[in-house]
Amino acid sequence: MAAALHAGMTIYLFGNLGAGKTTLTRGILHGLGYHHVVKSPTYNLVEIYKISRLYFYHFDFYRFNDYLEWEEAGFREYFNSDSICVVEWPEKAGDL
Fold first, then answer.
1. For position 32, which CATH number holds?
2. Which end of the chain has the smaller Cβ count within 10 Å, N or C?
3. Which 3 state secondary structure label does DSSP give 93?
4. What is the pLDDT of residue 52?
5. Which is nearest to 88 in space by CA: 36, 33, 38, 50?
6. What is the CB-side half-sphere exposure of residue 31 using CA atoms within 13 A?
7. What CA dihedral angle connects 67, 71, 76 and 77, to 10 degrees?
């Protein structure tokens, strides 16, 4: 799966708690050549990984109570043509 990814992509992960969303993301990062610890972004909301010239952002919006929290968090700039964004619980950000 990692071989098919490229900058500018956003991947939305849906599933119940414990479904393996972070485990899948960990596998993608390892497939991209990242060999360090991959943590769940549940408390930080985002974990940032730099792989060569690529920025890989792993988001977890589970704790959002209102979709406007996404806008207020200032994450919009992370979603650009130079990065890959993986988002757990994207429905918590509404249509944003």
1. 3.40.50.300
2. N
3. helix
4. 86
5. 38
6. 12
7. -160
